[in-house]
């Protein structure tokens, strides 16, 4: 089984050239050794930019960016964004992707996760203000909480429990959006906010704890597929290449992008449908087992992407079936599954 060498989506329309900046920019990607960040670093290097990857490696993995180390347009700084950072020389754009997104990861150290969202956002906004850089915040669909409206438009305020086990992430991201709004209003910082819905694909940590990686791992290893609740709750799964295209279009767009923009796949699937699809694609004998649903787990999650379509001319093109094929192949490679099965 082989890894994908090129993104599935069309890169030709997503070059992040910002008006008034050089065509080859200096771009900071925080959380750049993580799942999403490493894909973004790869895309930016491919577009000819110089990338400064900043990551404290709490959840990021060095192997995610190992393929970029040979180029002189990539540099890595191990740093925690809760502390201020100084970067010499010009910086034209900053993507803030720093913060664990998996509940099992951020709930392991909720105060640190909360500080990453808030202190990290403020430190990077200060850097953007100092450098005259445009800055993009990777926010989340979790700001909608357990929504009473579906699909969720950017105008929906959400229903978030500020005392629950997910609050450190949900409320941290909501507060970060407020900081971005105020820095734009008071200091004129050029800000962009992407509300990212469930994303999956290559370079996810096999032990990440999110539903797609869980199901694929359990199926490949012939373990029980764990369903929380009835499995009738819905999610919308966006392949990582589609998301990268959306992020880069949002960063480069000079349209009216001052408010948040949903980026996700509007096709909804129940968790049970996802489980059966993974079982069929892996031909796995795994059985479904049901567990109590975690507190504040949302019943539905589906983006209204009308704004992204209008402002960015963006919508996902990769189906769940196609994306799962690539992810299953990648995980089997990473797990060295042929060797594991031969030894069993």
Which structural category fits the helices and strands?
A: alpha/beta
- Give the spatial strand order of the biggest sheet: 3-2-1-4-5-6-11
CATH architecture type of one domain: 3-Layer(aba) Sandwich
Tally of separate helices: 10
CATH class of one domain: Alpha Beta
Residue ranges: pLDDT <50 for 5 or more in a row? 1-14, 339-344
Q: Kindly state the mean pLDDT as a whole number?
A: 91
Largest sheet, in brief, is: 7 strands, parallel
The count of DSSP E runs of length 2 or more, i.e. the number of strands, is 13
Could you describe the 3D structure shown?
This protein is α/β, with parallel strands linked by helices. It has a domain at 26-200 and 237-265 and 301-318: Rossmann fold (3-Layer(aba) Sandwich). 36% of the residues lie in helices and 16% in strands. The chain has 10 helices and 13 strands. The chain has helices spanning 35-46, 103-106, 110-131, 167-187, 211-220, 240-252, 271-282, 306-312, 320-334, 337-343; strands spanning 26-30, 50-55, 74-78, 93-96, 134-140, 191-196, 199-200, 225-228, 234-236, 238-239, 260-263, 268-270, 288-291. Strand 1, helix 1 (35-46) and strand 2 form a beta-alpha-beta unit. Helix 1 crosses helix 6 (240-252) and helix 7 (271-282) packs across helix 9 (320-334). The longest helix is centred in the middle third of the chain and has 22 residues, at 110-131. The protein is globular and about 55 Å long. The two termini are 20 Å apart. The model is unreliable at 1-14 and 339-344 (pLDDT under 50).
């Amino acid at each position: 089984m082989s890894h994908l060498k090129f993104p599935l989506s069309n890169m030709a329309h997503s070059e992040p050239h910002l008006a008034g900046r050089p065509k080859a920019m200096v771009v900071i990607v925080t959380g750049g050794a993580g799942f999403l960040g490493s894909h973004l670093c790869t895309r930016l290097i491919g577009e000819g930019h110089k990338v400064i990857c900043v990551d404290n490696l709490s959840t990021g993995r060095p192997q995610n960016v190992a393929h970029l180390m040979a180029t002189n347009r990539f540099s890595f700084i191990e740093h925690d964004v809760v502390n201020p950072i100084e970067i010499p020389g010009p910086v034209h754009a900053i993507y803030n992707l720093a913060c664990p997104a998996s509940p099992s990861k951020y709930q392991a150290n909720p105060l640190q996760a909360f500080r990453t969202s808030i202190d990290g956002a403020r430190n990077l906004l200060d850097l953007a203000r100092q450098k005259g850089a445009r800055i993009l915040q990777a926010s989340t669909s979790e700001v909608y909480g357990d929504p009473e409206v579906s699909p969720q438009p950017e105008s929906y305020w959400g229903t978030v429990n500020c005392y629950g086990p997910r609050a450190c992430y949900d409320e941290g991201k909501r507060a970060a959006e407020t900081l971005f709004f105020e820095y734009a209003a008071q200091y004129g910082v050029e800000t962009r906010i992407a509300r990212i819905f469930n994303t999956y694909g290559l370079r996810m940590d096999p032990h990440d704890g999110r539903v797609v990686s869980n199901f694929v791992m359990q199926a490949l290893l012939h373990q029980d597929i764990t369903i929380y609740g009835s499995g009738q709750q819905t999610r919308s799964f966006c392949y990582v290449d589609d998301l990268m295209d959306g992020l880069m279009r949002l960063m480069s767009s000079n349209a009216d992008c001052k408010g948040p923009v949903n980026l996700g796949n509007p096709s909804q699937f129940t968790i049970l449908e996802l489980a059966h699809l993974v079982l069929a694609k892996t031909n796995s004998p795994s059985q479904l087992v049901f567990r109590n649903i975690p507190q504040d787990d949302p019943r539905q999650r589906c983006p209204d992407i009308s704004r992204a379509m209008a402002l960015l001319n963006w919508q996902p093109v990769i189906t769940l079936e196609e994306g799962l094929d690539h992810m299953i192949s990648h995980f089997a490679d990473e797990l060295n599954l042929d060797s594991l099965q031969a030894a069993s």
